[in-house]
Amino acid sequence: MALRSQLLRIVSNGQQVRYIHELKSMERAGVEKLRDVLEDRLKEIKRAKTWKHERVITSPQDRTVTVKGAEGEFLNFCANNYLGLSNHPEVVEAARDGLAKYGAGLSSVRFICGTQTLHKELEDRLTNFHQREDTILYGSCFDANAGLFEAMLTPEDAVFSDALNHASIIDGIRLCKAQKFRYPHRDLNELEHLLAHSEARLKLIVTDGVFSMDGNVAPVKGLRALADRYRALLAIDDSHATGFFGETGRGTEEFCGIMGAADIICSTLGKAVSGAAGGYTTGPKELITLLRNVSRPYLFSNAPPPPVVAASMKALELVERSNELRERLHQNTKAFREGMKAAGLTVAGDDHAICPVMVGDAPKAVELASGMLLKGIYVVAFSYPVVPKDQARVRVQISAAHTQEDIKKAVDAFAEVATNIGLIKK
Ligand code: PLP
């Protein structure tokens, strides 16, 4: 008997208990097939050793965390909490005020009845922070990237994307109908070759400002020069730079000494700037107006919740108020990189708080991260396909919340564990 009529019969008999019991024991053919298919795929993920183990944190995100099933506190070296604002008292207080004043959420997308004064204030503040013409807020930077290319580019246009760009840029580009070109990581020569041979109407170069697996920086000056030479646009995803990279935290273009280099900046509020959630695109006002009208993650998804918006606004205020947190982050990063080098370990990247400790062999990277955990230091190993084969690493992320003692403790622990597992030869 068909499942639906069987269920109806059971319900109409009023046999609630039997109904639930039978529902549990009946497997729909489609679900049964799905389980078969997924079982194989899940086995494949395990075989490839790319299974993601999620540790459950039982404390706020901070310099130290507690983890379910483990005793004591861990020094946290794997969050994007660059400025230590995720649990900053002023940020938490602002979120609480936002909740009290504006409620938990909007139950609406922005253009129906989901725009509050708070959203407009944050957009204005970001516009001012980046010295751009206008800004549009999204629920996340993933959404900002997913909603940019399809809205902006047509088949007459072309997009040129760094091979190591973030997944959200890759997915955003997949959704658009423009001509698509991928240039080798940070390779200006190859990019120039592609630009020179393109007759597209609009040409958009897009790059991460800082690449999250390597902690290295896009060649912004060279990219700007090429954009100018070939009448192209430059978009930078500054998720790993906004708020803390560059002298005043204006991001990669400031770090590279070329403020205003990007025509479009997409960034996140989920890392240095409050660490709660949210993303945005800032740039020419016509583009932002177009995005408000046609960008799908903006049009078809709920407005960011008021406490989250209020937290980001306060975090941005702290970013602008003083250089103290940025300076502390810089000192911590310098001490970590120098200490690791002195210990005989290789840290990749360009003077950034993302410090990939290079290992090479994937099981060794896991061994190193596990050894660090046993010493009370929370770090994570990354291996293929997240990073290239034979370039497994333990990614360390430094925060302004760390003390110099924390940094020393981490360096000493790395030196000891790396020696014990044979990564450093005595
Ligand atoms: N872009 C880059 C470069 C990122 O590293 C991330 C987050 O990992 C994102 C975008 C997505 O940011 P969000 O968490 O706001 O969606």
TrEMBL record:
Reactions it catalyzes: glycine + acetyl-CoA = (2S)-2-amino-3-oxobutanoate + CoA
Keyword annotations of the record: Acyltransferase, Pyridoxal phosphate, Transferase
Stretches that traverse the bilayer: none
EC number: 2.3.1.29
One example GO MF annotation: glycine C-acetyltransferase activity
Xref: Pfam families: Aminotran_1_2
Superkingdom of source: Eukaryota
Gene Ontology process terms (BP): L-threonine catabolic process
Cofactor(s) needed by this chain: pyridoxal 5'-phosphate
InterPro entries per UniProt: 2am3keto_CoA_ligase (IPR011282), Aminotrans_II_pyridoxalP_BS (IPR001917), Aminotransferase_I/II_large (IPR004839), AON_synthase_class-II (IPR050087), PyrdxlP-dep_Trfase (IPR015424), PyrdxlP-dep_Trfase_major (IPR015421), PyrdxlP-dep_Trfase_small (IPR015422)
Aminotransferase class I/classII large domain segment(s): 74-414
Any one of the GO CC terms: cytoplasm
Enzymatic class: transferase
NCBIfam families: 2am3keto_CoA, PRK06939.1
Family: Belongs to the class-II pyridoxal-phosphate-dependent aminotransferase family.
HAMAP family: 2am3keto_CoA_ligase
Protein name (database record): 2-amino-3-ketobutyrate coenzyme A ligase, mitochondrial
